Amino acid sequence: MQDLWSARADAAEAAVVGRHLRRVWALPGTALGVVAWPATRRERLFSSWHYWWQAHLLDCAVDALEREPTARRRRRIVKLARSHRLRNLSGWTNNYYDDMAWLGIGLERAQRMHLIDNRSAVQILESQLFDAWAPEHGGGIPWRKGSDFYNAPANGPAGIMLARTGKLWRAQATADWIDDTLRDVNTNLILDGIHSGGKLERKVYTYCQGVTLGLDTELAIRLGSPRHRNRVHRLVDAIDEHLAPNGIIVGSGGGDGGLFSGILARYLALTAVMLPWETPADMRARETAARLVLTSATAAWDNRLQIEGQPLFGHDWAKQAQVPGMGSGIATFTGGSVRSSTIAERDLSVQLSGWMLMEAAYSVAAAGYPRR
User: Fold this and answer.
1) Residue 372 covered by a domain
2) Do residues 255 and 347 touch, judged by C-beta distance below 8 A?
3) Inter-residue contact 352 to 53 (CB < 8 Å)
4) Cβ atoms 275, 267 nearer than 8 A
5) 70 φψ region: left (φ > 0), alpha (ψ -120 to 50), beta (else)
6) Could you give the C-alpha distances from 183 to 95, 145, 152, 249, 343, in angstroms and in order?
7) Ordered DSSP codes for 61-128
8) 20 to 30 Å CA-CA from 283: which of 71, 77, 147, 174?
């Protein structure tokens, strides 16, 4: 199983690299992901800038390096980080705390696990997230600078990064805030967010569950507190019941939504592999998380298209992928988020989710799942 998923992760990596990675403005020593395939000229010139998609591209590249270290993969990560700073124009930061958290997670992993020096960038991003804490206004940290909206997609990854950089007290306060403020008591799923006036946005997104799961798993590893393990147990059961019909994580379309399912798969895999095992409930949560990852990955692989020998993943892993074309409506940036292309498979976000899922399946299989 481990070799099978390694080969599939290799194929997903090669597809994204072959279809999407290009030099930035033809500059040597640079590489970023073109946001669509097939791409318009404007997209190939990186006129479209989706900061957090590129952060996940870097994180996927770290996954591949972790799975099988090579000099080429290491160089790719260095290029991606350098190019992100270049194309962002304003350095490492922007106005969106969720974006900065995602980039910080990828850069910190590359530094901690592979000694790729990102200390300055990690410190800059960490300070942005740490200083944004605003309990007097209802948070948590806001979605973006100047906003009155405090949501799981910003607080979850920020908490993960702060846990990994040693700010455990703040990471724990973040996890407690999410559980106290955003957990739906009827389903135990995590809601989107809350405005400073107290109005809840009750939409349920898969990636909100993923980042919350990741944060509580990180804290369970580092602090050993039963409350974090118990939250993981409860949330894994809720995901299994409400967001994974037939064991397959539900899709969220293209655009920004294309990343949502992959993020959940990433942190389910973290739970399956890393959650401390002290009770039968811990083992049950690990096994459920592993099953959801492997079932979703099998479905996504079975429903892929093979185009010129490389996989193209669908936006809904339970359904057959569709062939995108230049006639497809292109993804557009509106109101702080990216809307889907008409055929979602065109979007880099969807293909990154597929790659993320294959890497997650590999990590789960390498840990010995499914148990015999």
Assistant:
1) no
2) yes
3) yes
4) no
5) beta
6) 26, 24, 10, 19, 33
7) HHHHHHHS--HHHHHHHHHHHHHHHHHHSSTT--SBHHHHHHHHHHHHHHHHHH----HHHHHHHHHH
8) 174
Q: Number of structural domains, the chain?
A: 1
| pLDDT > 60? residue 327 | no
Q: How many CB atoms lie within 10 A of CB 323?
A: 11
Rg for the chain, CA atoms, rounded: 19
Residue type, 167: K
Q: Is residue 149 part of a domain?
A: yes
pTM attached to this predicted model: 0.97
Query: What are 145's two structure tokens?
Result: 């600078």
Phi, psi of 192 (to 5 degrees): -65, -55
pLDDT digits (tens, 9 = 90+) for 280-306: 999 999 999 999 999 999 999 999 999
- What digits encode the pLDDT tens for the residues 138-166? 899 999 999 999 999 999 999 999 999 99
The total number of residues written for the chain in this structure: 372
The per-residue pLDDT for range 169-209, each reduced to its tens digit, is: 999 999 999 999 999 999 999 999 999 999 999 999 999 99
Residue 101 lies in a domain: yes
Question: What's the one-letter identity of residue 314?
Answer: G
| Residue 371 covered by a domain | no
Q: Report the DSSP beta bridge partners of residue 144.
A: 96
Q: With beta carbons less than 8 A apart as the criterion, state whether 317 and 261 touch.
A: yes
CATH number at 351 reads 1.50.10.20
DSSP string of 186-239? TT-PBEEEEETTS-EEEEE-HHHHHHHHHHHHHHHHHH--HHHHHHHHHHHHHH
Range of the domain at 176: 2-366
